[in-house]
Amino acid sequence: MPTPHIEVRNKNEIAKTVLMPGDPLRAKFIADTFLTDVKQFNSVRNVLGYTGNYKGRRISVMASGMGMPSIGIYSYELYKFYDVENIVRIGSCGGYTSDVKLYDVILVKDAWSESTYAKVQGGYEGNIIEGTPELNQKLIKAANDLGIPIHIERIHSSDVFYRENPDKYKEIYEKYGCVAVEMESFALFHNAKVLGKNAACLLTVSDNLATKEETTSEERQNSFTNMMKIALELAE
Ligand code: HPA
Fold first, then answer.
1. pLDDT at res. 219
2. Which listed residue (37, 99, 145, 207) is catalytic?
3. Residue 184 CB–ligand 1 contact under 6 Å
4. What domains, with CATH codes, occur in the chain?
5. Residue nearest atom 6 of ligand 1, based on CA coordinates
6. What is the pLDDT of residues 75-116, one digit of tens each?
7. Strand 86-95 and strand 150-157: pairing?
8. Range 98-136 burial, b when 16+ CB lie within 10 A, else e
9. Which Pfam families match (predicted)?
10. What share of the chain in percent tops pLDDT 90?
11. pLDDT digit string (tens) for 132-170?
């Protein structure tokens, strides 16, 4: 410590549970909107990280950046070098079916991916990795207590945002049962697994490949509060 990508020297400045939005400004939004007694612990590459209190309980929030290489780096450093136990990704996703509507919240049961991340990182040959069931149970309870409906589903973790074949999603939905696409959870779940830690992922539907609906980036930054409130209940 510090690590190549996180500058704080004292691991006590990061809570045991870290929420990870992709966007650094979303991390700042969460700290500004929901936390008290906030202390910023990272600004390397503008990947902002904060620790504060939510309803009197401690929690951290730090951005992951976009894609598996990026969340792979940040989650590994937090787990391995800063003794973080739980990481909850809170991100956006693109729906693969009209069954998931704009702004619906999905708790990722497991992530299917054609990515080589897990194979290269640790020799894992499979295509599906699940989130930590105990963490998922806590998030399900928090969602129920808050009265926020959630889907519990398999999603696609993709390395590619712009595909040459834009209809490929139909096959991935039908063959593997992925209801939406994002770009990080397969790597996060893999890192948690190899390091004996806990990971979960909540997603808000920001666009839908089947219905062609989409939200604006401004709406995305400010309106994903349901997912944030569920995840913040893990503060301890
Ligand atoms: N593809 C990949 N990741 C995403 C998408 C998408 O369409 N929407 C939000 N995250």
1. 77
2. 207
3. no
4. 11-232 (3.40.50.1580)
5. 94
6. 999 999 999 999 999 999 999 999 999 999 999 999 999 999
7. unpaired
8. eebebebbbbbbbbbbebebbeeeeeeeeebbbbbeebb
9. PNP_UDP_1
10. 95
11. 999 999 999 999 999 999 999 999 999 999 999 999 999
Complex ipTM: 0.95
Q: What pLDDT score does 221 carry?
A: 63
- What is the per-residue pLDDT across 192-236, written as a single tens digit (0 to 9) for each? 999 999 999 999 999 999 999 998 877 776 669 999 999 999 999
Q: Is the CB of 206 under 6 A from ligand 1?
A: yes
> From ligand 1's centre to the CA of 231, what distance in Å?
20
Q: Phi/psi at 144 (nearest 5 deg)?
A: -60, -45
Q: How far is the CA of 4 from the centre of ligand 1 (A)?
A: 28
Q: Which two tokens stand for residue 180?
A: 């939406």
Mean of the per-residue pLDDT values for the chain?
A: 96
* Residue matched to tokens 């800063």: 82
Which residues, at least 6 apart from 108, have a Cβ–Cβ distance to it below 8 Å? 131, 153, 154, 155, 185, 200, 201, 202, 203
Q: What is the rounded CA–CA span in Å between residue 161 and residue 157? A: 10
Instruction: Report the separation in Å between the CA atom of 215 and the middle of ligand 1, taken as the mean of its atom positions.
Output: 12
**How long is the chain?**
236
The tokens for 131 are: 């989130």
Model-level pTM? 0.97
